[in-house]
Amino acid sequence: MKVIVLLTLCVTLISQGYGNSLDSCQGRCGYGTNNNFSCQCNTSCERFRDCCSDYVEQCKGGATSCKGRCDERYNSQNKCHCNSKCDQHNNCCNDYTDLCGGDAGGGGGVITDADIKAVSEVLYALDSNKATASELIIDPQALVPNSQTSSQKDLSSRPLFRYVDGALLSRPTYAAFLAVLDNYFRMTGQTEHFSPQQVAEQETFIKEAMSNTELGRELFAFFYTKGVYASEEEFLHDLKMMWFGLYSRNNGKMDSSGFEHIFAGEIKGGKVSGFHNWIQFYLLEKRGKLNYYSHSFNGPWTTFPDVMGMQFKWDGYFKQVGSVVIGCSPEFDFALYSLCYITRPWKTVSSEPGRKATHHPNLHLGQNYLWEWEEVHRLCLSFIPLKLPSDEQ
């Protein structure tokens, strides 16, 4: 039989709005992020909403040059365009051929659900660092119906993780992941500050996961051929901002990030929020900080990665359903989440149209709040079945 598993994440982080400073985009369009300025002038600023007040005038709608705009997404407000489709529609800027060469970013194109399904299968096949049955042994024990997930009863007398091979966690991507995992305050409302060493740890993890693995390089190649990113540098920078850029979950404090919420977990309103990583679960359980109660879903797969929806307490704080892909490598988790966020922000990706993800937990991680000056974005996580290649039995 074929192995079936897909984890997709649509994660949207903090936006702070255009026009948030007096700095200008004049002469800066398309260049990388510069922390010496309080606002930015590249394509990433549109996603993170930290563009300068004259970004549209200088770099987008009012601009008639392709400088810093090669392979940008179509925007109907622009006077001329700089992507692979502008030739077909006869609306390229005059310097498009000279600056973009007619093929910047690998050609571009719409990313379909079939594209996402196909690249997901490739990433799964390339996950050479996933755990094997000899490296990871779990003991699921009590299975409860969905109606009992809120009971807060400890129905499992033993830990979930029976054995994890220490050599697995010492591999480069695991080691780099672990170095970042302990850099956060778990309680929301406490402003996060990163030391130079912690920033370096973030960059090391992204490099190990995305640049130094075949899986990560495949993900960039996919985005490059689709015209999403024109360079690996732009791709890696976007990942850093996407996952490690801070935003507020409580009282306007810059107290959270995508990485902290999804991988490390947080405490908000007296409950566990986020926390969707098996390595963090294992480490806290091993230290006696986490008590596994039961599970309400366990995937039918006989090899890793597997999907479980679990009930547990973390230092006295309860999680009603914590869904985790168990046994995958950090780079696979990171790549799949990133793939789905970048291609389908604000949406759940359906990898097999018409197929229902029965019994798969569907979690809302956070909620949209729209204020006059600030928006705390919604993070949503769902498990969608995907047929993946495997040996026929």
From TrEMBL:
One Pfam family, short name: Somatomedin_B
Record's signal peptide: 1-19
GO annotation terms (biological process): immune response
Domain annotation SMB: ranges: 21-61, 62-105
GO CC term, one of those recorded: extracellular region
Transmembrane regions: none
Cofactor(s) it depends on: Mn(2+)
PANTHER family associated with the record: PLACENTAL PROTEIN 11-RELATED, URIDYLATE-SPECIFIC ENDORIBONUCLEASE
UniProt protein name: Uridylate-specific endoribonuclease
Annotated source species: Pleuronectes platessa
Upper lineage: Eukaryota, Metazoa, Chordata, Craniata, Vertebrata
